Amino acid sequence: MLFKLGSLLLHPAFKYALIVLALLFPLFASNEYQVYVMASAFVWAIAVYGLNIITGFCGQLNLAHGGFFALGAYTLGLLSADYGWSFWPAFVAALLFTAFLGFLVGVVSLRLKEHYFAIFTLCVGFIIYLLLDKWEELTHGPIGVRDIAAPNGFGLVDFTQTVPFYYLVLAFLVFAMWFMGKLSRSLLGRTFVAIRNGDELAQSLGINLMRNKTLAFVLSTTYAGMAGALYAGMIRFIGPEDANVQHTFDMITYLLVGGIGTISGPLLGTVGIVWITQSLQFLEEYRMIIFGPLLVILVIFFPRGFVGSFLTWMHRESQKQAAPSKKKESRVSTGKGVENNA
To answer: According to its record, what are the GO cellular component terms (predicted)?
Structure first.
């Protein structure tokens, strides 16, 4: 019974059912705040999908991911608030800028391996935070950037309203997941996984490590810039704290809980933890007393995340169900052989 239910959850039609539920969510939400929280969760999920490319697929732990998220937000915010750009040109500029910086940082940092790479990117993230906080002539320093442009609407659609903006973010999330699915099934995605499984093995197969790692890093930072720009358009105010390394660790938590290296794991982990955090708001600063042990339990019993553990269980069950049929086929073939010999 559980195996049939699991097969149903893996069916392609289930993904379309989830999209339909997401489209209908604003109609069933109790208030506008719940729609806002879900839109915020979708924005963070886009950033987590970027982290999934470089960490889940390629096996490189980028601790500057939150910094690139903030750079995307600041690029859009400064261009719109200080230079009068409209949202969409500033949005494209944010993607290009974070991709370019991702290329520069990747070319330097990806020559390092394992924890050396993680430490280097942690330093990069801290440098980004210091620049945003101290470079007052450009970034406004601790005051932050206000009056950021909202996405330009069309016709009767006004993206300054919560519900239309929710559908805009949902469209970007669907595109991010679609691209992730295509990437995972492509030769490039398999190349990333080969690098994750071992640099020396990948190199022996003729894979150019630096080129592919850099490409993964650029794709990852572009996702972060996209999420940051959408975040700036939603909040309409940003500050240096948006580059705090705590955001990177939050995104790592979302990824680990949902399932690292999976397609739906980043979304499940992000949405689940965001809503759990919201439900514990009444505890104020004491909510971490409950939230912390809950995360520890999840990591202990679901070491590959919810989606990763579920896929592992489904694989084992399918092997168990396939084993009796293989034995039966083996007996039948053996019987035919005996009969022929006779």
So the answer is: plasma membrane
Tokens of 66: 């939150």
CB 176 within 8 A of CB 49: yes
Domain count for the chain = 1
Phi-psi label, residue 179: left if phi above 0, alpha if psi -120 to 50, beta otherwise: alpha
Show the domain range for 130.
Answer: 33-321
- The per-residue pLDDT for 156 is 74
Helix (H, G, I), strand (E, B) or coil at 244: coil
Q: Which residues of the chain have pLDDT under 50?
A: 2-10, 338-339, 341-342
Work out whether the CA dihedral 85, 89, 95, 98 comes out positive or negative: negative
Sole residue written with tokens 């059912």? 17
| Residue 125 counted as domain residue | yes
How many whole angstroms separate alpha carbon 316 and alpha carbon 63?
A: 34
Q: Does a structural domain hold residue 97?
A: yes
Q: Would you say 214 and 54 are in contact if contact means Cβ atoms under 8 Å apart?
A: no
Q: Rounded to an integer, what distance in angstroms lies between the CA atom of residue 321 and that of residue 184?
A: 27
CATH number of the domain residue 93 falls in: 1.10.3470
pLDDT for the residue 317 = 66
Alpha carbons 176 and 187: distance in angstroms, whole number: 18
Number of Cα atoms under 13 Å in the Cβ half of residue 263: 17
Alpha-carbon distance 113 to 231, whole Å? 32
Q: How far is CA 70 from the centre of its chain?
A: 15
Rounded distance between C-alpha atoms, residue 173 and residue 228, angstroms: 13
